[in-house]
Specification:
This protein has about 250 residues and is α+β, with helices and mostly antiparallel strands. About 25% of the residues lie in helices and about 20% in strands. The protein contains nine helices and ten strands. It has helices spanning about 15-25, 40-45, 80-85, 90-95, 95-100, 105-110, 115-120, 130-135, 165-170; strands at about 10, 30-35, 50-55, 65, 75, 175-180, 185-190, 210-215, 220-230, 240-245. The strands form three sheets. The protein has a five-stranded antiparallel beta sheet with strand order 4-5-8-6-7. A three-stranded parallel beta sheet has the order 1-3-2, with helices on one face. The chain has a two-stranded antiparallel ribbon with strand order 9-10. Helix 2 links the parallel strand 2 and strand 3 (about 50-55). The longest helix has 9 residues, at about 15-25.
């Protein structure tokens, strides 16, 4: 049986309190937890062994799906994937995002997992997402505790892959991410957010907290869809994900 390592847990009530709690520790020694569907298994595998875990469960400002003054949608980072997939406005205006959220894992994990957590997923690799005993027997890997990539022999870069179902859909919708960190607030377009680094594939620091996802209003003739390739029709992470967008004019062209 895999057990969680020892850690302290705090449950702040505001995003600012959460950021302050993480910022009081060295990077990597304090981590945010949303639904826990990614972090908790990774902690059991000793991929992360934080001193402090900061639960976002009581931060009300991170929840909810509301319309912006411009007519777009503001989706709190702690909105569950089920809520995103079933929300009437998301289904009507952002069908690709609703579809992507509905295809993540299985229903139990969608009920716990959040949209923000899916955006912030750690990269995955068959040599990395294993128990400590398994990884130790191979001499670890470049992403965690070692210096060698077992995927690309002699490679100088980690090639662990992103598996965020929501990312292609959000890119197609020109969505923006709002973060709060020790240095203040900043915003990034989703299509500018990721970088080609399997160890840390995001252009934000680990102490920055994703607060909300902002999606501009789509045109009246907007159509969208998301599809994924995976070994099984449920549970599995995507081997490949694709979002498509079509904006029709008033004549349907």
């Amino acid at each position: 049986m895999l057990r969680l390592p020892k850690f302290a847990l705090v449950t702040p009530r505001t995003a600012a309190e959460a950021v302050a709690a993480v910022a009081a520790h060295e990077p990597g020694r304090a981590l945010y937890v949303a639904g826990g569907t990614d972090l908790v298994p990774n902690m059991k595998h000793e991929l992360f062994t934080p001193e402090l875990v900061v639960s976002l469960a009581e931060v009300a400002e991170l929840r909810g799906i509301t319309e912006t003054p411009e007519g777009g949608l503001r989706i709190g980072a702690m909105s569950t994937l089920t809520q995103v997939a079933e929300h009437a406005a998301v289904r009507a205006r952002l069908p690709a995002l609703a579809q992507a959220a509905s295809l993540v894992s299985g229903p139990q994990l969608r009920n716990m997992g959040t949209l923000g957590g899916n955006v912030m997923l750690d990269t995955r690799c068959q040599w990395y997402n294993q128990s400590h005993f398994w990884r130790k027997s191979l001499g670890y890997c470049m992403k965690k505790d070692g210096t060698e990539c077992h995927v690309v022999k002699g490679g100088s870069r980690c090639v662990a892959a992103a598996s965020n179902d929501s990312a292609p859909a959000l890119m197609s919708l020109d969505a923006e991410l709002r973060f709060l960190g020790p240095a203040g607030e900043r915003r990034l377009k989703v299509d500018e957010f990721f970088q080609a680094d399997g160890i840390w594939n995001k252009k934000v620091g680990p102490q920055e907290l994703l607060v909300e996802i902002l999606v501009p209003p789509p045109p009246a003739g907007h159509r969208g869809a998301y599809g994924k390739l995976r070994d099984r029709n449920s549970i599995d992470f995507p081997l490949f994900g694709l979002a498509a967008r079509l904006d029709l004019d008033a004549d349907g062209r």
